[in-house]
Amino acid sequence: MLLASPAAAFDLDSDAPITVNAAHARLDDSQGVATYTGDVVVAQQGTRLSADKVVLYRDDQGLSRIEATGTPARYSQATAGQTAATEASAERIIYNATESQLTFERNAMIEQSGNLFRGNRILYDTRNRVVTAEGDNGGNGEGRVEMVIQPRGRAQSDSN
Fold it and tell me: I need a labelling partner for 159 at 20 to 30 A (CA). Which of 27, 93, 112, 149 fits?
C-alpha cells in the first residue's frame, strides 16, 4: 500500500543534522525564521526536499515548520525495508513538526513503488500514517483525486 512504511519526514528528535544548501540565505533570529532561495536543498539522512524557496521556522523547542515552494518543489524519502523511495512533488510543501503532518498543495503527487496519489491537496499524517487527498473546487471539472494502486505481484517484483 502507498506509504505503508512509517515515514517521519524530517526527524527532529534525531542526532542526525539537517543540512540546507542554497544560493541565498536570510536569518531573522529574533523572529526564528530562516529564508533560503535559489536551488534550495534540505536534507537529513534519507530525506531530501528541493525547492526554489524554503522557509524554516523555529520556536523554543527547535525547528517547528518547513515551507517549500517551487515549480514544483520535490520531496524524497527512503522507505524503511523497501528499495523504492517515496517521491512527491507539489508547488507548495509544508512540514508541520508539531502536528507530524506533511501537506502537498497545488498539483500534488505522491508516488511509491508505482502506486500514486494525485490531487490539488494531499495531507499525510506521518504519526498515524493517514493520507487524505482533495481535488480542486474550482468548478472546472478537474477537481478530482486520482489514485493508482499496483497489483501486489508488481509492487513486490519492482522492489526486488
Answer: 93
